[in-house]
């Protein structure tokens, strides 16, 4: 069995960075080099004061321990490829914006470019590991490209090793994964390559958590896991609409159904809608795959998960407008949280972006506060969401604040879009004193103590609760 001494990871993003930093930490005998074409990103990974390009609890500690020892970040992609025995391909696979499958198929251009680079550069045999989330059978295309371009005496073995970490808990998830999934061809060479990667993970992951399966099952399992997780959220959010219309309470419903051990209590938190770079993209990917396989009903089934999520976001912003006497024109709305979930600075597909766009269209004034998201990122997301508006026009309507208290000053309503822990300890008495009356709170994250806020004088509307404000 080939032993892995040197790993290269192509893509220093949210997955490649933390995943391979943890591999380096747990495997001091392996030299790990993470490469990326993006100079600014690599510079940030190498920054002397550890101002890393992504915010992730525990990540800085891992990088501090391993960087310069056996963990390196570089833009020299070719050198990284040349030296490695095993290469992770952890590049982005966004939804295609144009061409065939636009709006649902995965854009595999970055995967293909990385694969072609490996083929062009490698002069020794490599294990190439698909870490990016890709449609079923992408490994086959990678294998064809690699074999068609390989040099004499150079073998490529392809593995699929999808990543299941969630942002905000990435380091915890990587230290103690529910499972590590490795897919390989069921040939003797494929199985050997698979064992070589298993050996890497065995340095800290118990053997019974390392699952080895066929390549296609591995690729499909990743899409399936995300689709099923997102489907739970859309299911609970669909029920939250019924709760609001009937007076049932979604927290009580979620708790009651979650006690059934077949259902389980996790991932049943009603919200303003799921965000993040994965759920929508991967479901649409599954929808496209199903359509390409002529499985129309299957495609429609999964598409509904995304449709329900869009409905949830729209329903929430409509509730704000309806409650504020059917107009928010010229009214100040404080939006607390811009990241797609707590403990990350990532804003990709964040529900907050959609809500703020809706408020802008109603000509409201919006104050935003988020403890982690860079201001430049907020402006870029809002510009992308409203392409017909200039940045100057957006900035006349929207302000970014440096605290929750500042954001809420002179506002008519507070909207909680992200479940940051610090929002649980807001001094609501002071917030109330600084707001116009009646003062409204719209909780899209089941975060506030409703009774306490009502006692102060707030009118409180919570997702999945339909009682009088
Ligand atoms: P990302 O955009 O943060 O990082 C991808 C990086 O790859 C970028 O820095 C980009 O510059 C680099 N890159 C692209 N093409 C390259 C090339 N040819 N050579 C060198 N570098 C190149 O993306 P991410 O969030 O890390 O996601 C990566 C993959 O992992 C995606 O397929 C995603 O679906 C999957 N995934 C993401 C998460 C998550 O939580 N973000 C979780 C599981 C799986
Ligand atoms: C997800 C998967 O969980 C992870 O396994 C995969 O590798 C990548 O995609 P991520 O998107 O980082 O991870 O975060 P996750 O915790 O799954 O949350 C996704 C979205 O769903 C967030 O907007 C979150 O707020 C929302 N969510 C989550 C809910 O609205 N309710 C819940 O009960 C759980």
From TrEMBL:
* Residues given in the record as NAD(+) binding sites: 11-16, 36, 41, 91-95, 132-133, 167, 278-281, 348
The protein's matches in Pfam families, at most eight in alphabetical order, are given as:
UDPG_MGDP_dh (PF00984), UDPG_MGDP_dh_C (PF03720), UDPG_MGDP_dh_N (PF03721)
Listed A to Z, the keywords are: NAD, Oxidoreductase
Q: What is its EC number?
A: 1.1.1.22
Question: Which parts of the sequence belong to the UDP-glucose/GDP-mannose dehydrogenase C-terminal domain?
Answer: 334-450
- Active site per UniProt: 278
Tell me what reaction this enzyme catalyses. UDP-alpha-D-glucose + 2 NAD(+) + H2O = UDP-alpha-D-glucuronate + 2 NADH + 3 H(+)
Q: Name one GO biological process term.
A: glycosaminoglycan biosynthetic process
Q: Name one GO cellular component term.
A: nucleus
Q: In which pathway does it act?
A: Nucleotide-sugar biosynthesis; UDP-alpha-D-glucuronate biosynthesis; UDP-alpha-D-glucuronate from UDP-alpha-D-glucose: step 1/1
What does the record give under GO molecular function? NAD binding; UDP-glucose 6-dehydrogenase activity
State whether keyword RNA-binding applies.
Answer: no
Locate the transmembrane regions by residue number: none
Q: Provide the family line.
A: Belongs to the UDP-glucose/GDP-mannose dehydrogenase family.
Q: What is this protein called?
A: UDP-glucose 6-dehydrogenase
Q: Which organism is it from?
A: Rhizopogon vesiculosus
